[in-house]
Amino acid sequence: LGTLLTPFLANSCGLKLELIGVFTIWLFWICLFPSGIQFLAEKGFNTDVFSTNSAGFDDAYVILFCMIIARLGLWAFDLVENQLMQERVKPATRAQVNGVQVSVSQLFFIFVAVLAMIFSDTSQFYILVF
Fold first, then answer.
1. Would you say 29 and 71 are in contact if contact means Cβ atoms under 8 Å apart?
2. How far is residue 112 CA from its own chain's centroid?
3. Could you report the per-residue pLDDT of 55-99, keeping only the tens digit for each?
4. Helix (H, G, I), strand (E, B) or coil at 81
5. What counts of helices (H) and strands (E) characterise the chain?
């Protein structure tokens, strides 16, 4: 869906890539906000924000739905970011910039993987969320 959102905003709505990038990254964070509130309420205050008794749906479904919709914003932002890198970086330095970007991204991926190994117990999952 993110691959459909970016061209729609660029071609049909006539928005600049920078504005689309800002919009989609905010869409990502706003969609993840209810999940963060739920984790914070559950682990910090020992209460459920989205309880099954009053709302009729489970916390896991709220978190899963928010994460699925948030991916739309993240994929759309990734497309905008890649297009801006291709259009705005000079061809002579494009390979170096992209190489540094990929290496930094992989470094943080390894960091998250190490944290997942350290906090591998299911009761410690909330640590990885924040």
1. no
2. 14
3. 556 677 878 888 888 999 999 999 999 888 888 999 899 899 989
4. helix
5. 5, 0
- What DSSP string runs through 12-50? IS---HHHHHHHHHHHHHHHHHHHHHHHHHHHHSS--SS
Under DSSP, is residue 32 helix (H, G, I), strand (E, B) or coil? helix
Burial class (CB in 10 A: 0-12, 13-18, 19+), 38: buried
How far is the C-alpha of 3 from the C-alpha of 63, rounded, in Å? 23
Alpha-carbon span 57 to 88, nearest angstrom:
46
* Residue 91 in tokens: 């061809």
Residue 58 zone, left/alpha/beta (φ > 0; ψ -120 to 50; rest): beta
